[in-house]
Amino acid sequence: QVQLVESGGGLVQAGGSLRLSCAASGGTFSNYALGWFRQAPGKEREFVAAIKWSGGSTYYADSVKGRFTISRDKAKNTVYLQMNSLKPEDTAVYYCAADRSSNWLIPPPRRTFDYWGQGTQVTVSS
Fold first, then answer.
1. From its phi and psi, is residue 64 left (phi > 0), alpha (psi between -120 and 50) or beta?
2. Residue among 59, 54, 52, 65 nearest 110 (CA)
3. Vertex 114, ends 101 and 77: CA angle to 5°?
4. To 5 degrees, how large is the angle CA 37–CA 38–CA 43?
5. What are the tens digits of pLDDT across the range 33-90?
6. E-assigned strands of the chain?
7. Are 53 and 99 in contact (CB under 8 A)?
């Protein structure tokens, strides 16, 4: 069973940076895509970024392009989300998710991800 464990959340001032980590286990990820989603209080969960495990292609939500970077370390089975120039509106619980397919004919924001982590809180103060 695939397990995803997020870490790295916390409190940061606007303009600051955080790096989230997602340790993946229990599967062979060569055909997977891994992604990050977030959910702010009172709002629906939204897509943030995704990466193909094998090729490393990435996809970002417009709201984070140029500020966030998703990457993966195959040796550590870990996906990262480097978040720079953080804004108060980035405050949310951030979830790591895994998609068993990395076929992006349907783009990641519209795909159904199969496995989810428990989430990590990110709070950006103004």
1. alpha
2. 59
3. 70
4. 130
5. 999 999 999 999 999 999 999 999 999 999 999 999 999 999 999 999 999 999 999 9
6. 3-7, 10-13, 18-25, 33-39, 46-52, 58-60, 68-73, 78-83, 92-99, 115-116, 120-125
7. no
Strands 92-99 and 33-39: what pairing? antiparallel
Beta bridge partners, 124, equal 12
In this prediction, residue 26 carries a pLDDT of 94
CA-to-CA distance for 84 and 31, rounded, in angstroms?
Answer: 29
Nearest to 59, CA basis, from 111, 116, 15 = 111
Separation of alpha carbons 57 and 50, rounded Å = 8
- Give the span between the Cα atoms of 119 and 38, in whole angstroms: 9
